[in-house]
Structures are given as C-alpha cells and as structure tokens.
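step=encode ok
step=design start
structure_in=
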C-alpha cells in the first residue's frame, strides 16, 4: 500500500472544472461528516461548472451555489440543519441559473447501490411521479418476467467523491465512527458512493496507523483501493459537528442563514469566512476553534 497524504490544496486540484462531484456523507443535521474544509478550498480555487450529487443538500451545496461553482445538483432533500431551504439554492432555482434533479430517498439509495455494485442501473417497479421528467437517463420499460412497468434507476458514479471521516490511515483505510451515531442514509451512502466513484478524496480528523485500523476491521467502512487522496484536517467538518470530537457550531449556522438571505450579504460572508482565510488553519483561527 502507498501513502496518499496530500495537502488540501493538492487534493482539490484532483477536481477538474466540469466534473461531477459526490458528497458521500449527506448533511442530515448539524452533526454530520461533511467535508467543509474541502468545500471551502473548492471555492477558493474557483472551480466551475460542477455537477453535485448528494442525498441531502445543505449548507455545503448552498455555499458552492452562491460561489458560482455549481451548474447542477441532484438530491432528494434540500435543507439546512432541518430548518430552512438553502437561500442561494432557492434564488438560483427561481432565476433558473442552476439545474435541479430531484428524486426520492429510495431512488438515491438504488442509484448508489448500483454504482457500488458496478452495474449500470437497478430496475424499480411502480415509480410513477414527476421525478421522471427530470431524469432523461432513466428509462421506462415493461418487465419481460411479469409484464410490470418498470424504471431503470441509473447508477450514481461521480467523477470525484469527497467525504470527511473521523479516522484514516495514510493509505485511505477509514472509519466512519460508530454506525449507531450515524443517520442510516449516511452510514450507507458514504461507503457506497466511495465504491462507485472514479476518484475519491478523504479528509480526516485523525491520521492513525494501519495497525490501529486493522485492530477493529469491522469498523472500517472505506478501503484503500478506492481512495486517491487523504488529507489531515482537524475540525474539517466545521460548522458541522463530528461525534466524539466536537459539537456543531449552531451560531455559525444561524450566521450563515442570515448572510445568505441576500446576494450582497452572502458576498461579505464569502469574503470573510472563505476567501480571506488562506487555509483551513486560518479559518479555524477566525471562527475561534483550537485544532
């Protein structure tokens, strides 16, 4: 196995303009393994025309939309810590500056499962709703087995999958933490999207030895052969919290929601919290977090 340790700046260069990016662990609430440090670096490097795949889009996707990084997003829910529709997403949807492909939690699950299995699609029967019009890649057909009308739910295989983890070794064998503390969707989506993606970037709270990873193999949800880059970023999910490491910064979520309400105040937020801090350490110093 080869060490894959990189800086945040180096890892972000693995994401070319125009690529599809999957956030493997969705923002199900204020405690979530969302790679926010990497999201902010994507904005700093001015990545453009990205197509975002994530089960639930929250602050992280809204930040990318407001910064002009996204051309499209696919998810089954759009909310910030369960309280509000993401403001930049709302404006972009009304103005028609972003393409939205909405689906259901079940179709996302099947798409991720197909991607992880290496198959092109998984058939689903009885899927009759308005999601079909947003997915030209899905096809309706009649089952040759029982004559039922079915839909092909296409595999979700992003060009690059990104995820934050509590622990990883230098090769990319990583633990998501106690699955009892994870939302069911997060526990499933992260390993599935990682297996299906063409390239994978991990950010980690801790870099530990391979021996420590091997000591509890049943907790190792992501394996080295799927991973291309590993970045050590303590507090890399802030303002989200990470179980066993730090609590969510709820005040920052409120500050973001207030700032994102208008394009002008959002630009000030972007300047102050994303573009002026030169790296992840400078950001943490700014928000008063000791790494």
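sequence_out=
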């Amino acid at each position: 196995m080869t060490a894959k340790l990189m800086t945040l700046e180096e890892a972000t260069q693995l994401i070319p303009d125009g690529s599809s990016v999957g956030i493997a662990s969705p923002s199900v609430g204020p405690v979530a393994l969302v790679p926010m440090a990497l999201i902010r670096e994507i904005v700093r490097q001015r990545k453009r025309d990205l197509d975002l795949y994530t089960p639930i889009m929250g602050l992280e996707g809204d930040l990318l939309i407001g910064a002009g990084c996204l051309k499209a997003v696919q998810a089954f829910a759009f909310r910030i810590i369960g309280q509000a529709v993401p403001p930049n997403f709302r404006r972009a949807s009304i103005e028609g500056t972003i393409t939205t492909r909405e689906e259901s939690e079940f179709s996302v699950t099947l798409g991720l499962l197909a991607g992880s299995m290496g198959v092109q699609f998984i058939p689903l029967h009885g899927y009759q709703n308005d999601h079909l019009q947003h997915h030209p890649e899905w096809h309706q057909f009649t089952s040759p087995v029982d004559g039922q009308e079915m839909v092909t739910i296409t595999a979700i295989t992003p060009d690059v999958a990104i995820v934050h983890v509590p622990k990883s070794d230098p090769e990319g064998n990583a633990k998501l933490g106690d699955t009892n503390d994870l939302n069911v969707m997060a526990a499933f989506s992260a390993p599935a999207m990682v297996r299906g993606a063409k390239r994978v970037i991990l950010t980690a709270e801790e870099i530990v030895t391979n021996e420590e990873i091997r000591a509890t193999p049943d907790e190792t949800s992501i394996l080295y052969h799927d991973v291309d880059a590993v970045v050590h970023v303590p507090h890399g999910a802030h303002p989200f919290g990470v179980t066993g490491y730090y609590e969510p910064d709820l005040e920052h979520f409120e500050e973001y929601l207030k700032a994102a309400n208008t394009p002008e105040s959002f630009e000030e937020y972007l300047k102050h919290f994303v573009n002026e801090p030169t790296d992840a350490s400078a950001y943490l110093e700014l928000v008063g977090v000791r790494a």
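step=design ok
step=annotate ok -> The longest strand covers residues 160-168.
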